[in-house]
Give the backbone structure.
Amino acid sequence: MLGAAFLGQGFFQALTQHPFLQYALLAGVLAAVPCGVVGSYVVIRRISYIAGGIAHTVLAGLGLVHYLQVVHGFTLISPMTGAVIAALLAALLIGWVSLRFKQREDTVIGAVWAMGMALGIVFISLTPGYTTDLMSYLFGNILMVTAQDLWLIAILDVVVLAVVIFFHKQLLAVCFDSEFATLRGVKVERFYFLLLGLTALTVVLLVSVVGIILVIALLTLPAAMANLFAGRLRNMMILAGGLSAVLTTAGLALSYGPDLPAGAVTILLTGLAYFGAVILRQTIRPGK
Amino acid sequence: MSEVTRGEAAVNEAVLTCRDLDFRYDRHPVLQNVNLAIPTGDFVCVVGPNGSGKTTLLKLALGLLSPSAGSVLVFGTTPARASRRIGYVPQHPRLDPLFPVTALDVALMGRLGTTPTLGPWRGKDRQAALDALAEVGLADQAQRHFADLSGGQKQRVLIARALAGEPDLLLLDEPTAGLDAHVEEGFYRLLQELNKRLTIIMVSHDLGFVSGYVKSVVCVGREVLVHPTSAINGQIIADLYGSDMRLVRHDHRCSEEGHQC
């Protein structure tokens, strides 16, 4: 604990001197908003596997745009935009599959998941130069966040909050009991795709914080922790967002001194916090 | 007998009408040649063994399934058009027990379709949901978490959700599955009370228990027989379930085909 405090102190000193650390910190805090809101929907609607599929196809978009940039001098869109397009396409494809082929849903999602990843790896291997880019895509590099990325995250915050304020009733009903929502005239499939679209955008943002491999943990674990203590969806979202902000900040602070990967440290902290929360919940209210 | 003499007039005032209804699932016939008319104000129990098609009949009435042949009319129109007038109550164990909602949150969902699409619930919605919770005896439980309620209370919340939409017809799918006998009794008394202003159609596998409360029984085998206002005899039950069951007496009403009762 003393060591952690010491490391943290070094971090806060560095924070005042290095803008890249300020960007990183701000990225984690801004990303906590969609993480808490969308993560809660993903947990209560039980679509983490779908979110995982979307996350891994992001590599195809990142890899393709990166390849086009380096090899063909293509500068129309950035790798981040490529990732957004890939994630939205994956969300449409997986959503369609899960609505039409309920029985084989997980198999098909697994196939999309693996193919997206493989496609990304092929493009990255075709791209001359260092393969450190692959590592930062897979495991995240929050220290590389640019001012442009921060604007993108801030815009998504506004989009997510607006959608939730406008359609909270319908989204809640669709997640709780989609059959009943259908009978009340809610266009359930449209809201399902809306939810998957928001999930795709959130996943892309979180990829820049913790990377493709670890993104599902950051998306779902704070929400799962919040679900243990919050009895209403709105409180669950606020608590999940707060936990996410604290955990990404702590991950950044603790990884800075010993020069460890921030994404991995954040996820380790998140996992420990989750198991701690489960034990705490069992102690407070056993049997639930 | 009354159905036969009332003829077309009865069809017009019927809440639910099935005409020559067939439903096949992957070419396997589930329901064949169903003809029935349920009048306004009825309290109907749909019974039959597991896999007999009683839930299928309910889903056809809700418009969640479409007939392979024939027609289903609710309030004289398609189930989809009538959906605002139908209150649907599913089985509560089908829902996620850890879902983060209060009893009031659940009851409010019944207001969808009656309230503007965009933005939060209106005061009117909140009032309707609270009234519905009061009607099912849960006025003081509105802010409790759905997860913390007992099975019987959860089922009542789902009725309140249906009532919040101000329906004219209540459709219930095995509402007492998994409830204790004394809870079940209170539940049927609540339905009897609601039947004073609503038509109720309820699916149940347990004919013995409900017979004291309902007005008529629809038996679903491979075909559907309506038993209005007279006694079901042991032979009908044996035919339906393939074995002896406790004999029940209740009022009996005949279908248009003049089912032998």
